[in-house]
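Fold this sequence, please.
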Amino acid sequence: MEVKIMSVYLDNQAAKPVDDRVISEMMMYFNDKFANPASLHCDGDIATDILEKSREKVANFVNAPNRSDILFTSGATESNNLGVIGAAMRQKKKGNHIIISEIEHISILNIAKYLERQGFRVSRVAVDRFGIIRLDKLEKLITDETILISISTASNEVGSLQPTAEISKLAQDKGILFHTDAVASESVLPIDVQKVPIDLITLSSNDIYGPRGVGALYMKKGVRVNPIIIGGGQERGFRSGSENIPGIVGFAKAAEIMKEEMPQESEKLKILRNKLIKNVLETIPKSYLNGHPEKRLPHNAHFRFDYIEGESLILTLKEHNIAAATGSACSSKTLEPSHSLIAMGLLHEEAHGSLLVSLGRTTREEDVDRLIEILPDQVKRLRKLSPLTPSDLLKKYEEVK
């Protein structure tokens, strides 16, 4: 069966294309400079040198003072495991209490469930109707046994920004480790660990237009975690396994480009996002924006439409070669409503009618215009088929034929 090529790609939160400049940088490390950094010969020395230069670039991306603060992994999920499970196991003698938010990425939620099975106690701080945690509620959850707080920099679904600087200060004042998953925000918001001190940060290569299968855990000097992969002792003993040099080189190049181009890129995406939000809310009745209207990622627009299913809307957009999503890419193929939207107080039927549009480096204004053109008619079409649509709304649709 021939698969249609998606001509309008608006699912950048799920996956991003690898930048051509990144691909060019990687090529020689597949079949020319391919040696293992663990080898003692000259080619091994060359591989070690490029590994450490790449580490320096990723450290610079988050303004880390030491390149050794960066541990390379296979991606964000592994970084979350190393940062949260590794820190929890290391701190176990000090306490057994961990705090996360109700709208964390599914990888953090499942890590929390795993730790509960290991005897840890996990508290989940509530969020408001915009998906933002309340600091007073977070502080009330802290006990003498609290050893770790893990709260994402921003929601990977609704795009709301968390008060990361305030959480960092609270954790520091209480002597508690703070981990944040920065994957949702790292392509659009700068990270500066010298301005906002954070103990552990999860990073992903693909989310800054680098190759998949590579990530990193920033670990502040003096912080320690227990390894979760045992082997040859690479990455200072914290993450064993031969380093993926081509992938790491690509990650480093992507970080270098992103550091330089983020300000202009984020502003462009914000303008396109605002245009999209304004048009959708003005042209489609009973449509809503999920998440905070202002404190949100500049490339994220998360809508909700009454009386339709988000999955059905995705399929109708697919017919028009438009790629979008209903929620988190790691769980969007399930039929369960978004845990984030339920935590924000939405009813199940409201949570089911969502559409996530995430813009990226390759998004053009004509892509946004195409969605603005197509979306109202597709929502109308689905509402006419829905038994839930009230008669007065159906009548309005008939009047504007």
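Residues 20-258 form a domain with the Aspartate Aminotransferase; domain 2 fold (CATH 3.40.640.10). The first helix runs from residue 20 to 26.
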